[in-house]
Queue: 3 jobs
Job 1
Amino acid sequence: NTTRPYPPTTLPALFEQQATRTPDHTALICDNDTLTYRRLNEQATKLARCLISQGVGPERIVAVKLPRSVELVVALYAIHKAGAAYLPIDPAYPQDRIDHLIEDAQPVLVIDEGTYDSLSTRQVPDAVRLPSARELDPRSPAYVIYTSGSTGLPKGVVVPHEGIVNRLLWMQDAYGLDRDDRVLQKTTSSFDVSVWEFFWPLAVGATLVLAKPEGHKDPQYLASLIQQEAVTTLHFVPSMLEVFLQHDAARGCTGLRRVFCSGEALSGDLARRFHTTLDAELHNLYGPTEASVDVTHWRSTPLHAEGAMVPIGRPVANTRMFVLDAGLRPVLPGVVGELYIA
């Protein structure tokens, strides 16, 4: 029984409520830039009004082609405040992939560095107002992320606010960030793990620390940033975790409280190496983009990290998992079948 009675709400509502509770707490750290919740909320509100004046609103898509930066975070939050969904586009993508995403999604606007500068300095008539939190429907799209295209052309996955909000509220119930936590944002925005990195900490009063563009590929830089900014929480795909643990600097990350893995199978050998290197929790998550990032979770401990593979675990809140045969009938325990999400 995974039923949890979470209230119907949206990502911008969660952020604005938190900004009201802790306006002077640090929300965002990026190199030498630091923004409080109040300042981030003000910047996002100003940009949201500019977006609305350009025809952005509910059920519309805004493409965001920005490197990891303060501007990227402001843009994502502004798009939600305007009631729209964001489509992340990695600026490093090949031009033909970028062209396909824009042609397929038909965004009302593409925000790149030039567009952002133009919008952020534009004067907006006082008559342009934001939708209130009550006016935004939790069933409306929050973001659109395209698949890798491994089975043909990339396919756009539309995720509503109610789906990702359920995911974030479950994550807070399970792992309990507080105002002293600092979450590292290092996943490329075009991958769905980035969604909880961007929106979980700022919905609950924690601080978001941005890695520099391409910094997620450099273990030495990551270790230094984790120590310098007192990062407590971050995500690795297992292959990158393996590279990270090979560096001596990883042992210096003593402030880490929790590390999440997803995106690839987590081996028992890697889990054992983690537990001998870091004194932090290790959580294995699994799920497809279509089901709002992750659908199962498992905490790895030194005792559990003895098998060849770490389990994907049990379903998250308001989610069920079934192992079925070719006729969609539940199989007996121990029998191989296909995994279905409900």
Job 2
Amino acid sequence: MTTAVALPTPTRRRRPRRPEQLLGQNSEMRAEGVWNWTLPALATRLPDGRTVNTCPAAGVCGLACYARSGAYTFPNVVARHQQNLMYVLDDLTGWQRQMAAELAHPRHAGGWVRIHDAGDFFSDHYLSAWLRLMAFRPAVSFYCYTKELTRFRRLVEPAPPRNFRWVISRGGKEDHLIRPGDRVADVFPDDAAIRAAGYHSQDASDLLAVLGPAPVGIPANNIPHFKKRMAGRSFGEWQAEQDARRAARRSPR
């Protein structure tokens, strides 16, 4: 007599639960009429065990990232940002379809969407999905900060959408690829440091990052342990120091 052996059922990743609304507004963005989409900052471990780097080009910014403190660490906020990430990872087509439908709402016509107040364009497929959305919704304007210079050089700069503006944020692994004429932003300890460096503060409005004079200065959030790590430097200066130390270690003696 043979005994039946139950074979293990192949595991399948469940389709991510879809948020009812994809775009949100914090109080600051609401005052400016800007909507935003966000992901977990830097890296996250998802409930299913996957670890995802959402900011592949991050450098020193990861050591003093405002989006890894305060309200961003609240369990409900973490869960929502992870839900957003799982949606684009597991059903990018469905996410794109839902985002396109949401952007068709009259409240977005003539308005602005900030892509990421945390996270970055972590893959070619993800950035390409946003570029398709921009082409499909020309009545909406989009902007972002990014450290993904190599990806933007390949996928955005050859034919940039008319309704998309971006600023390269210093403090990343690809700072050395910044060219004269690139629109750049840097985080400084305070407004006085911004002025001393000849930068233009965007503190009055986040939209100044892409609409105001450049280069763009961002005052650091008043988070004591992050300011201590900055040690009076801007992110760009801090990154340059780290890059110089690494280069010195690699050079033959």
Job 3
Amino acid sequence: MKNGILLLVYFVGTLYAVQAQEFLYGDPLPDAPELSLRGPHRIGVRTLNLVNEKQIDILNSKAGNDAVYDRPLTVEVWYPANMDEASETSVIYEEVMGTRGDTLRPLIPFSFKGRAFRNAVPKQTDGTEAFPLVIVSHGYVGSRYLMTYLTENLASKGYVVAAIDHTDSTFKDANAFHSTLLNRAKDIKFVLQEMVRLSSPESDDPLSGLVDAEKIGIIGYSMGGYGVLNVAGAGYSDTLNGFFTQMTQGSKAIAPLTASHPEYQNQVDPRIKAVVAFAPWGMERGVWNAEGLKGLRVPTFFVAGSQDDISGYEKGIKAIFEGAVNADRYLLTYENARHNVAPNPPPKESLQPGLHIDEYYRYADATWDQRKINNINQHFVTAFLGTHLKDQDFSKFLDVPQNSNDQDWPGFKPRSSTGMELLHIMGEN
């Protein structure tokens, strides 16, 4: 009897401890798939303020005469850190809801916790181990904190992850759309180069020696997807070039990013070994054509909602997937999901009555629990990047039955993998 009472007390105490633990973005739900769990590394986080000098200032260019400015970019970096196991790993991220409070919805500050340590000492690699680099590009509008569930998770598994605040595209400073059209790919390339420079063995930056510059992945969501695909080899169409020229009253600034430009393919960085494109925008607007998509040769993992009403599905994301005939590629589809297949869950502040519904729908999906989407994304991105950046064998998690309703997918708990489709097509070349 005494042992029974003690056992009951133990179970009650354990249940209370689980319930009392605060759920943070990226934490596993009870049915989280296997590879969604965090890795062995404690992680640090720091903010970089970079400047890309002498860039075209497209917002102040007139009649085809391109102005020039020094373009500021704020970047958040997560990385494996040297920390005592007893140290509490906690950070507060400062964010806003709304979009350009002066002209659209008012900006509402909020904060949320993460499982990292601000400015922790990077893990010492003593020259024997360096970590793959991952660059992350948010949507329009968004911020470097839009996908912390994924950036923290990847850093804990031995990646250095750099997420960009794209100037003129964030909640705080969203501006005319042609700045986003021009600068997405250019920002990604610049931040990639800066991260490689800062982490080189010759650098005096704390990141020195931390990155394996020959193993780089790029991740983009929505307009970030538009950017990473271009960086990886999918040249924009002449249709986009014409639209951009008309929009900017004559600027040819985007021409070097088009598939027809004679130097475009020479810009593709061979160190990029993997691409993840969440709901990439543009196909329905003529951003790509068959020739442009043929230029994508880097292994690519697409993620989409079958009811995406921003990027489109059949004639949008799936059409990009099908047209990228030279890439080894996957397409994970969340059935009945819309566009928000990448962000963190909705902040609690977005639940307040009286707010514009878009404060909630900037993050939430109409059908799926965003926390479940986050866990599934963690699982598949881990498998995909691990395959191409770490030479790990995750084939059993990637080569699964096409329809998840037919049988449980490997790595998923019984009865938990319904409502998804995973297509895989090998590249022709």
